[in-house]
Fold this protein.
Amino acid sequence: TVHMGFFDRNRQELLDKGLDPARLPPGQYLTDRFPVLHVGDVPSYAPGEWDLTIGGLVEQPFTIGYDELVAMPSVTFTVDIHCVTKWSKFDMSWTGVRVRDLLERAGVRPGASHVMEHAEFGYTTNLPLADITTDEAIVAYAYEGEPIEPIHGGPVRVVVPHLYFWKSAKWVRGLEVRDSDSPGFWERNGYHMYGDPFREQRHWGD
C-alpha cells in the first residue's frame, strides 16, 4: 500500500462523501470541527455595550447598536470557510446584514477603494471595497441560527467567505472606508494583503 499523507487522505474522504473536490482550495483540509484561533482574550460585553461604527470616506458616519443591527433586513447564507492555518469547513450557515447595505446608509464617497475592519483589542484587517460589498459579505450575528459564541467572534463578526477567514474580523467594532490600501494586523506581520484561498495567498509573495 502506498503511504498517503494526511492531505491526500482528507481529499479522498471528500470524494468518498460525494463532495466536489473543487470546493477545497489547494493546501487545505476539510474538518467538521470549528477550530478556535485568535490572539489574546475573548471580549465580553454588558447588554447594550457592543456597537459598530461605519466611518472614513462616507457622507454620513453612524454608529449602530446590536438591536438596531438585528432589526435591519438580514440575509442567511450557507458558505464554505477557509482558514489560512489550512482548515476548511463546508456548509456553514451565517445570518447578518450585508456590509453593502450598511455602507449605502453611510453613503460611500467618490474615490473609496478599500475598507479597514476594526475589531476589539485594536485588531485590524484590510480588503478591497469590492470584496466586502459582494452579496455574501455580511456583518454576521448568528451562526447556524443561533447567536455567535464569543469564541467564534460573537456577538458580531464580519464574514467574507471568498477570502481567507482572517479577513473576516471577529468582534468587529468599525468599518473604515478608505481611498488606499494599508496593511492590517496580520498583514503587517507577513500575511498576504489580499488572501485568495484558491491562489494560496497566505503570505507576502505568495
The chain has a mean pLDDT of 94. Residues 22 and 64 are 39 Å apart (CA to CA). The longest helix spans residues 6-16.
